[in-house]
Amino acid sequence: MTRPVTDLDPIPPLMPEAFSISEADAMPLKKSYATATKQQPITIERKPFAPRYADKLIDPGTARATLAVSEESPNGTTEDNYAAKNQHLTVIQQHVTYWDRDHDSIIWPQDTYIGCRDYGWGILLSFFAAMIIHFGLSYATVPNLILPDPFFRIYVDRLYKAKHGSDSMTYDNQGRFRPQQFEDIFAKYDQGGKGGLDIDDLLIFWKEQRMVFDFFGWTACALEWIATYLLIWPADGIMKKEDVRGIYDGSIFYKRAEETKRKREARLLVKSRTSPELVTKVKKVLGLPDKS
Q1: How far apart are alpha carbons 241 and 35 in whole angstroms?
Q2: Does the N-terminal or the C-terminal CB of the chain have fewer CB atoms within 10 Å?
Q3: What span, in angstroms and rounded, lies between the C-alpha atoms of 166 and 29?
Q4: Exposed (0-12), middle (13-18) or buried (19+): which is 266, by Cβ within 10 Å?
């Protein structure tokens, strides 16, 4: 009689003839499984994130309800105690709480417009963003799902219902944050190990994440990443990983709004005074060219 296999039994080694690539490329360090095979070259080119033994990010495959974590930030956003202050909200709710100024869990189109203006977008871009976002997401979040909301409001408590396909799948269907899927974005598409994504990386990501006949998802994913790039607007053209993580938990919106507020106040101060020394000092702080 054969003894049944148990979890305590050693895992048999993978057959080396299954690979034409090095073991280091095929198998994560100190793991008994492979993430790539010669029979499917795309698995070699797009290797997923594999946690290392000493990583601070534990259980990346387990979705977090209230924390957007990463290898670099295993405790979420700790700046200004952001994560601790938002433990009553799922990560997908945190993503939009910036626009819920009165904390009534309902976001009106004008809330979105004002929020976009506050972090520096122009009138037309802010108007366009508000219309697209509310037209695309409002109905899915309506409590009764029978009639659409006549004011295109977004109901934050049901925002998880507005999840679409053809994206990174970092949010699960209940609005939790999946660290594995987030890390996979950069493990697979950060060409050259830049620590972020440029336009070429984003285009490849978008093309490879598309699901068959999911036209809404294709469009929504493209618009979301375009908006992300416009918000971060990296000087070197590379969206840093932690900035993108700040999009998911909404922390970067507050940061950008505060930066924009300080710049606007500084410009008003420059206009209200005529001291050349003051003008030079403020321009230096803002990183503006001194044309005087």
Answers
A1: 22
A2: N
A3: 30
A4: middle
First to last CA, the chain: 92
In this prediction, residue 124 carries a pLDDT of: 98
C-alpha dihedral sign at 270, 272, 273, 274: positive
Give the whole-angstrom CA distance, residue 270 versus residue 167.
Answer: 44
CB 29 within 8 Å of CB 39 = no
Structure tokens at 84: 């601790």
User: DSSP code of 158?
Assistant: G
Q: What percent of the chain has a predicted confidence (pLDDT) above 90?
A: 75
- Please state the length of the chain: 292
Cα separation, 63 vs 72, whole angstroms: 17
Helix (H, G, I), strand (E, B) or coil at 292: coil
- Return d(Cα 29, Cα 154) in angstroms, integer: 45
Dihedral sign of CA atoms 98, 99, 102, 107 in order: negative
pLDDT in tens, 49-77: 998 877 899 999 999 999 999 999 999 99
Query: Which amino acid would we find at residue 155?
Result: Y
| Separation in Å, CA 20 to CA 32, 37, 46 | 17, 8, 16
pLDDT digits (tens, 9 = 90+) for 211-261: 999 999 999 999 999 999 999 999 999 999 999 999 999 999 999 999 999
Q: Model confidence at 17, in pLDDT bands (50, 70, 90)?
A: very low
216 or 33, higher pLDDT: 216
Closest CA to 238 of 200, 274, 276: 200
